[in-house]
What does this fold into?
Amino acid sequence: MLRWPLLLSALLCLSAQAQELSLRTVQQSGATVKYDPGGGPARPGLCLEILRAVERVDPGLRFVGLEQQVPLRRVERLLAEGLMDSFFCLLRTPEREKQWRYVPVPLYTIRHVVLQRADDPRPLTSLAELAAASQRKPVLVSRGSVLAHRLAAADVAVAEVGSEREAMQMLALGRADIVYGQDINLQRHLAEARLGDKLKLGRTVFHEEAQYLTVRADLPAAQEERLAQALRRLERDGTLRQLAEKYR
It folds into this structure.
């Protein structure tokens, strides 16, 4: 038999889930692993699938505004100004944590890796080696990404471009020697562009970090906890892991 405190907690949880709650959000443009308008129902993007899974485990919860597709920097501005309630998925940095909050349940993990031309013999096993190589040609990284700040802190010369797909095309054309990005994104673009015979992923993982659900700084604590509870359920039942594996 359930003890009364546990039963009361379960009833309160069910009551909270029954309450209707709409949270404003958007899709990030140019990030097809996260949000892919052309992917169809089977592969709409990893972050959109996580969002829909949250709605399934908490039927009273709805995310609105997904018809909007905006670049990363506008996503950050909307969150910082409180014009958006939540966003799936963002990396965590001290500067970002000053502007909004992170729900403390990791959604999935990304690894920082490099992409090179297939005939490039350099192994590039450290940031120091990247810094030295970047003196000839800057390392390409997606504009607005926190990855650029990490490289700059290690004295790596960088050039920011519109997307990892654009960076990959520049690499294939010889306009750059190295692309630095997230493994899950680079693998996807490499397969779609069918450039596996011309480009290769490096074996070194320079850094690992998690993507999180973010909420505006003044979102009521009860609403944040409701989101956290839904994500914990998806973590426990393996849904988050299964979705991440689907997009790798």
Observations:
- DSSP finds ten helices and twelve strands in the chain.
